[in-house]
User: What shape does this take?
Amino acid sequence: MGSCDCGKLIGIARRQKPRAPMEIVTHVAVAVGGGLEGDHKGLKFPRRGVTLLSREAWTAALEELTDLAGPVPLPWTARRANLLVEGVVLPTARGAIVQAGAVRLEVTDETWPCRRMEQTHPGLLKALAKDARGGVTCRVVEGGVVRTGDEIVIVLRPPTHRPRLPG
Assistant: This one.
């Protein structure tokens, strides 16, 4: 993947409580110190109140999952991310700034897939763990309303530091 600095918001989802189904919405208020209005995670975990996922990364992960019927048709909401973007490579370095419409987000970490992904489909956890395909977690720096179709701009893309292992 290249490193384009502009893309588009193509999906918004939230869930009211843990393990609840994801609810797709066309627009939502996003608050500083929290996350998406109506989403349970933001207030409890403000440093990772909003999660972003790239459509391209999701598609790449799904391409690794095949069964006897061919590619696995999982919806992006199976990843349980809040915002689905396309046309932009998400920065994974802490401190990166992503503008989503009127909302400004600071990347706090890569989103590491959990065992729920393996329960969703065998092999999904491993497929998402590669190349930061699970997306990124963010804290809200400037709140506002996001809408499907909003422009996504990478305002600040610090270098990504990978630990060098001996040998």
